Sequence to fold (730 residues):
Amino acid sequence: MAEPLAPEETGAPGPFGSGGRTLLAGWGRTSPSYATVVEPDGVDALEAALGAPTTNVIARGLGRSYGDAAQCAGGLVIETAALAGISDVEAETGLVTVGGGVSLDDLIASTLPHGWFVPVTPGTRQVSIGGALAADIHGKNHHRDSSFATHVRRFSLATPTGTVEVSPASDPELFWATAGGMGLTGVVTEATLSLLPVETSWMSVDTERFDDLDGVMAAMESGDDGYRYSVAWVDCMTRGARLGRGVLTRGEHATAKELPAAKAGSALTAPGSPRLKIPRPAPPGLLNRASIAAFNEAWFRRAPRHRMGELHPLASFFHPLDGVSDWNLLYGPRGFVQYQFAVAASESETVRRAIEALSAARVPSFLAVLKRFGPGDPGPLSFPMAGWTLALDLPVGPSALPGVLDHLDEMVAAAGGRVYLAKDARLRPELLGAMYPRLGEFEATAARVDPDGVLASDLSRRLGIGAATNHAKEHV
Amino acid sequence: MNDAFGKPQSLILLGGTSDIALAFAERLVADRCRTVVLAGRDRTGMEAAARHLLADGATSVPIVDADATDVASAAQVVDDAFKAAEGDVDVLVVAVGLLGHQSADERDPGRVAEVTTVNYTWPAATLARAAERFAEQGHGRILVLSSVAGVRVRRANYVYGASKAGLDGYALGLSEALRGSGVALQVIRPGFVHSKMTEGLDAAPFATTPDVVADAMVGALTSNAQVVWVPGALRFVFGVLRNVPQAAWRRLPG
Ligand SMILES: Cc1cc2nc3c(=O)[nH]c(=O)nc-3n(C[C@H](O)[C@H](O)[C@H](O)COP(=O)(O)OP(=O)(O)OC[C@H]3O[C@@H](n4cnc5c(N)ncnc54)[C@H](O)[C@@H]3O)c2cc1C
Ligand SMILES: NC(=O)c1ccc[n+]([C@@H]2O[C@H](COP(=O)([O-])OP(=O)(O)OC[C@H]3O[C@@H](n4cnc5c(N)ncnc54)[C@H](OP(=O)(O)O)[C@@H]3O)[C@@H](O)[C@H]2O)c1
Fold:
């Protein structure tokens, strides 16, 4: 659903043509832009919208990418909510066929009561199947189960040159270019993926608290392989000996046997809806150095030093923030950026230096998420690569922030790492090729289904992805 | 495309040899601006500026011919500049301006027409086209170099001052018309600036430099201010001067 940021921000019809356009932004709300929004009610309408475009076009799912990936200034944005439908789960294989606009929330609600969970879930259930594939999302189980596209068997893709059926066998290039391709190969209308069988909707969780980063990282290196899910929350505002103190939580789906009798009745229940809603952007500065540091402190103190086998509902383990809808408004009118990078396992020093740089610059940041990745999949723009990934939310405002992040980019690129395009809103374009050395391969595949460079987003325009084709059609 | 911090990647300067505009371009290129289109009439001057910007890190500095005495060319110059940018244009600066020589110009209708054309008619016509192009693009920002000389026109430089008053008013009107289009237009009102334009002239109070004006323009990129005074104190000075009775205004020095 296209919801303008605020009613008064919608363009009124006027000589300078924003009439009928809608202001769209990513989850970080930093770079809103106006586009014409359409919501095709099915594949025919979608093909018509893609067929004879006069402007650039991009798909938008639930707008949970943080930056400018799902918007297109002055162009056409295709909302996917009507690409609905969830098939029955095939009992033998766990295969399910789902519309490209279906949210993981709806998918989980429909399949969890029958004992099936999604194979990969991000930190929120409010992402669409199309968005999950386009970002090739990862979860806390990447070290075990790889990323989303690995679990996708086939999909239908509406492109400017027609709708195609794609599987890793039928067209490996297009399949993997679409995985992580940020919507630049077309609109995923439906996908078949394999679900994970679970006995309960509970997690058995081990929690450990560490006073410094070395402790956290050492525990992850030695112990993560013993868990399907693992994530650490790291404090990037502490300094000195307590730099990067953190809380490591690791878990498994609880088996039916592990549930006490009292919980047996709720063995397989879908997560509920958000209980709280933030009504409007908070005043600027609500989240500042002091308030964020206090939050981090309280959060760290609350965590147990060591506790094993605690039962947590699925939702609180995977999607703690989904309890409050529109929490991004707390960051105020200027919004926030999320910075997420990945580096090889041998580059743990880069992770430390990144945390040191953030701490030294005294930019406020909520607890950062630290994970270990298993090997990446074949997607040329897919983000995960074997090693470490760190993600943190940073309110826009501190004047040091843009420079610190540019500095981190250089460090990450020099270490052979990369930033996550689904989170990006500010990378220097010239570093993209170093971070994604197979960019050319991606562009060649995208050009095959989109020879005129019709598919473009603010992200692709900002970073110059597919620029060669886009220039060709400049004012034809 | 601007990034999350409002930092531009591509820029058009109408007035590709303007000291103020080039000081602004230098700052953006030192950050992440890689394309600067220079439009003007002095090819040699623009080529020198282009070499400088390329050495500083710009990757593309195309040059577009523009003569502000040729009113009919205005729309074409804007189109040429957008084309030369090869992609999104984040910021366009209107820096073309001609100070003239008041005492000689005021009795010469041809010179009055030229100063008025270069300062007002041609910039206004380019703005009309630029607004259309930016609205089509769905985003962008226009910075118009006005002057305090247009805030209250004086006997001592009314040929220039009136043309700047015209441009200032036009730009403010257009800024309103652009509301809700995703395109911003901001009016920059410097006082006396030590640049080629004022070479050899006695400095006025609050005189400043192209660097200071350029810093204020960079600041404008992340503000919603419709008008930016440089230095900022001039806003208050002119708040008073605007309302001084004409008899007293007439006796003010300069
Ligand atoms: C609180 C929170 C936690 C998160 N945690 C994680 C995490 O742990 N791991 C992780 O990997 N990500 C995480 N994310 C990011 C999120 O998973 C991705 O950005 C995802 O792409 C969002 O899906 P969406 O439907 O909202 O897509 P949008 O934001 O609407 O779009 C994202 C991209 O997908 C493209 N797209 C959307 N629909 C389609 C379609 N049908 N066909 C083709 N392309 C399409 C768009 O063009 C765009 O490029 C998190 C986000 C939030 C807000
Ligand atoms: N300097 C000040 O005190 C001051 C104060 C307030 C406002 N301003 C305004 O700020 C802007 C920039 O001025 P500046 O200080 O940077 O001075 P500048 O260096 O002299 O810049 C003026 C620009 O206008 C161009 N120009 C003049 N006539 C032209 C024509 N017929 N065709 C094409 N281009 C023409 C000049 O090009 P050439 O190099 O070819 O001449 C030059 O690029 C101007 O609009 C000026 O009015 C200046």
Remarks:
- Chain A touches chain B at residues 9-12, 14-18, 21, 23, 28, 30-35, 67-68, 72-75, 335, 337, 396, 401-402, 425-430, 458, 461-462, 464, 467, 470-471, 474-475 (CB under 8 Å).
- The CA atoms of residues 176 and 379 of chain A lie 4 Å apart.
- The pocket of flavin-adenine dinucleotide (ligand 1) is lined by residues A 27, 58-65, 69-70, 80, 100, 122-124, 127-128, 130-132, 134-135, 137-139, 182-183, 187-188, 321, 422, 457 (CB under 6 Å).
- Confidence is low (pLDDT under 50) at residues 1-13, 471-476 of chain A.
